[in-house]
Amino acid sequence: MTDKRGRLVKASAAFGAAGAGVVLTAAPAAAAPMVTPTTGLHDGQSVSVTWGPSVGGPTYVSAVECSGPVPAGIIFGPTLDQCDGSTGSQLSQVRGSGSYQGNILVRKSIAPPSGAVTCTNQCSIVVVASYANQTPPFAEVSGSVPITFK
User: Fold this and answer.
1) N or C: which end of the chain has fewer CB within 10 A?
2) CA 138, CA 27: separation in Å to the nearest integer?
3) How far apart are CA 56 and CA 78, in angstroms?
């Protein structure tokens, strides 16, 4: 299911992404974000997230904590059901580059729509980018980086 080209997809309004609607588009090849640190984390610890989107010009980019791995690509309705939107943190564009950077406070216990989870070794950080200014609008997920807690 890595090739979603030519499929009808629904852009997500999750995490501040603007504009939901059915669109026809090719899935960009999203690069995995860089997250530091990823192991031995404490509840409430700040971690750094850096990401370079596969398509230029996202209108909103944020990092969020999820209860497990999330595949990279165009967002489908249930794609982010395992992500806790309350953990979301906006990333800012790095001056002079197409990359985005910011920090997210990770939590050992999260409450995504799919059900509350206490993270041990299964949680992850993903980046969500909204392209509301594109025709047609869409949103993509970076793919996930696993995180572990003490």
Assistant:
1) N
2) 10
3) 25
pLDDT score at 121 = 85
Quote the longest CA-to-CA distance of the chain: 44
Instruction: For the chain, list residues with pLDDT below 70.
Output: 1-30, 76-77
Residues forming beta bridges with residue 84, ordered by sequence position:
65
| Tokens found for residue 5 | 């080209």
Who's near 23: CB < 8 A, 6+ residues apart?
Answer: 8, 9, 10, 11, 136, 137, 138
Location of structure tokens 């059915």:
22
Pair 39, 49: CB distance under 8 Å: no
What would the CATH number be for the domain defined by 19-146? Answer: 2.60.40.230
**pLDDT tens digits, residue range 30-52?**
577 999 999 999 999 999 999 98
CA distance 12 to 9: 9
pLDDT for the residue numbered 40? 95
Token output for 146: 């696993």
